[in-house]
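Retro notes (design track)

What went well: tokenization of the new backbones is finally stable.
What didn't: we kept losing track of which sequence belonged to which structure.
Fix going forward: every design gets posted as structure first, then sequence, in one message. First example under the new rule, 476 residues:
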């Protein structure tokens, strides 16, 4: 492991077993928690969230690059959300074949027609990267995606640094333990929510977390709630059904749910088709979008995070549309782009199909979905494209260059999983938070980072999906 934990520690079976026991206890002490699969809606039983035994070496330069570019990504997402013509052009082909994106887009159009009721915009996002390793040994930061909706693990990743510091001390690696950086995305994300709540201007109004039916990852969100309560900002957790049954707008378009005025709707649910189990859920989404409550994200910011928009942004000249007089910003953002290719109908899309079929292992095929576990690899790419290459169905996807990170060795601690050394790949995320009121950007910050690590045998999937584990960067 390059400049990381030495082999004599990694291969010492007795020490590893002792460290794993210590690590699990420390994770529980620090509150790195999840509910169990068996009881996802009760905290009577909780366990540690999956995490790596050791932190993973990350080159300092690329880590700092990811943090530095985040405020520009915040600005970019916000500018895209305000550019109705761009969203219309970028998503035209996708909306024609992808029902879920089409339904979101119809809500977006209705809001544009009626006029936005709220000039305050709150964005909490996470831009995810991998390190692309070149043949010559150099590595570069490449963006996987930007999550503009329910970007998770800001809470738990605020508690993992102390866990890894403790493990390293117990392992006799004091020097490495001092290299683990402080990280508190929960506080930064909450600061932005608090700012939006304050600007809304009603002390009695609540911050409503719109949450999923199954809430295994509740503690991650509780950290943000707790930060808000420290500021005496009331928060409530509601489901789509609560909004369907009791949601209403008054003549000023103020949103009321169960009789309480809602200042901020923080969506932790609603990013996948299966989140909308009835027509009433779509009605509830429209009701919230039409309201004066600050939405995080609002519908146009939700659309700005689609894979199709990501692919269109990589085209020559497109970033310049959003940063006309800032070539250095364009350069910083573009440096993080991997190769992205359109599957739209026409010669360019045909060329992409041929390229993918000729060498599928070079690419990843991505549908317009969030939440991990949706991407398509290898021979599966051929299956999908052979079946859709002559039809507009192919436009529901984009094609992206596969990124080749260098594997590192680690132990992944997961309830009920054997303790064994694994070849691992990591993904680095940077959390962004911004608040805009009218034309004024009131806050725009990078508020922390997230490192997730998974066994190299898994192509796809995050922590919540049960594949990746929480980790910390050990800067080298």
């Amino acid at each position: 492991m390059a400049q990381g934990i030495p082999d004599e520690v990694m291969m010492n079976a007795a020490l590893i077993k002792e460290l794993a026991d210590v690590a699990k206890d420390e994770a529980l002490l620090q509150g790195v928690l999840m509910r169990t699969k068996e009881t996802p809606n009760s905290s009577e039983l909780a366990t540690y969230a999956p995490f790596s035994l050791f932190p993973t070496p990350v080159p300092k330069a690329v880590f700092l690059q990811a943090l530095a570019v985040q405020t520009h990504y915040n600005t970019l997402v916000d500018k895209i959300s305000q550019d109705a013509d761009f969203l219309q052009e970028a998503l035209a082909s996708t909306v024609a074949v992808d029902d879920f994106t089409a339904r979101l887009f119809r809500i977006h159009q209705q809001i544009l027609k009626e006029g936005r009721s709220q000039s305050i915009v709150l964005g909490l996002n996470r831009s995810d990267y991998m390190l692309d390793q070149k043949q010559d040994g150099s590595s570069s930061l490449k963006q996987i995606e930007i999550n503009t909706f329910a970007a998770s693990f800001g809470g738990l990743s605020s508690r993992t640094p102390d866990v890894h510091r403790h493990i390293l001390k117990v392992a006799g690696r004091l020097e490495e333990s001092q290299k683990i950086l402080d990280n508190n995305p929960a506080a930064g994300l909450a600061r932005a929510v608090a700012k939006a709540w304050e600007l809304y201007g009603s002390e009695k109004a609540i911050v409503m977390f719109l949450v999923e039916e199954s809430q295994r990852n509740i503690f991650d969100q509780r950290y943000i709630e707790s930060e808000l309560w420290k500021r005496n900002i009331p928060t409530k957790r509601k489901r789509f059904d609560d909004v369907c049954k009791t949601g209403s707008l008054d003549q000023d378009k103020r949103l009321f749910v169960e009789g309480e005025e809602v200042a901020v709707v923080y969506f932790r649910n609603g990013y996948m088709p299966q989140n909308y189990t009835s027509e009433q859920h779509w009605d509830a989404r429209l009701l919230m979008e039409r309201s004066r409550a600050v939405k995080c994200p609002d519908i146009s910011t939700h659309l700005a995070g689609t894979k199709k928009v990501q692919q269109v942004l990589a085209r020559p000249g497109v970033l310049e549309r959003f940063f006309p007089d800032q070539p250095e910003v364009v350069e910083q953002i573009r440096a993080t782009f991997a190769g992205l290719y359109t599957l739209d109908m026409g010669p360019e899309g045909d060329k992409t199909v041929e390229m993918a079929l000729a060498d599928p292992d070079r690419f990843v095929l991505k549908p317009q979905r969030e939440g991990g576990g949706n991407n398509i690899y290898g021979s599966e790419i051929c299956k999908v494209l052979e079946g859709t290459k002559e039809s507009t169905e192919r436009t529901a996807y984009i094609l992206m260059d596969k990124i080749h990170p260098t594997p590192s060795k680690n132990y992944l601690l997961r309830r009920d999983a054997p303790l064994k050394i694994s070849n691992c790949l990591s993904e680095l995320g940077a959390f962004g938070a911004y608040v805009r009121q009218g034309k004024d950007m009131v806050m725009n910050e990078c508020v922390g980072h997230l490192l997730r690590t998974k066994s190299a045998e898994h192509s796809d999937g995050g922590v919540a999906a049960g594949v990746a584990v929480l980790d910390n960067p050990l800067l080298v």
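Added context from the reviewer: The chain has a mean pLDDT of 95.
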